[in-house]
Amino acid sequence: MTGVIVLFSTLALNLLCLAFAFDPSPLQDFCVLDAKSPGCKKPETVTAADFFFSGMHLPSNTTNPYKAGLKVAAIPGLNGQGLTLARLDFLPDGIIPPHYHPRAAEILTVLEGSMEVGFVTSFPNYKHYPKVLNKGDVFVVPVGLAHYQRGVGKVNTVVLSAVNSQNAGIVEVAGSMFGAKPAINSDYLATAFRLDKKTVEQLQSKPWA
Ligand SMILES: *[C@@H]1O[C@H](CO)[C@@H](O)[C@H](O)[C@H]1NC(C)=O
Fold first, then answer.
1. In the chain, at which end, N or C, are there fewer CB atoms within 10 A of the end residue's CB?
2. CATH number of this structure's domain 2-170
3. Domains in the chain: boundaries
4. What separation in Å is there between the alpha carbon of 61 and the centre of ligand 1?
5. Is 106 annotated as a binding residue?
6. What's the rounded mean pLDDT across residues 83-96?
């Protein structure tokens, strides 16, 4: 189960590197974060390297129970631009568990392989919009809606994902409830999820990110 933590903490770590000076009304061309002190680098010290990332052609680590990996392009010059770019890798039966991004829509492009993606609209309709994407296909997940991805087909799947936030946030549907710290009352969760209490306690004992 550590895969849960590995997968999502990779993103968190990458984002921490970029955290979080944001000028909502910038009076400047860019604000490249200064790693050494709070605030922006002096423009005369900014170079093209601050807007550059290399390695998106290399797979992310899929050695985890979900058989999926995530790699974020950590680019100091993205600060304040409302964008994040990531590469997702799936082994043939790899998955990313259901989650939503409270602060961003997501656009997914399949570069290799095949992936099913789906999102579900809000109450009371809960309409499910599933789609199998093949090489070259692009799909949008609207902001804030729960969605899932899973590799389908016989080969590894490579996906480029962009979100329109510097810090989109990830809320894993199961993890947010069964992994809450301190724990949510298990009788409550059993009633709410129509599960027996033992199952709830088993879920609560697992590591969630
Ligand atoms: C991939 O992740 C696993 C599990 O965290 C780890 O043991 C392994 O060393 C990683 N592989 C690479 C190449 O980083």
1. N
2. 2.60.120.10
3. 2-170, 179-209
4. 6
5. yes
6. 97
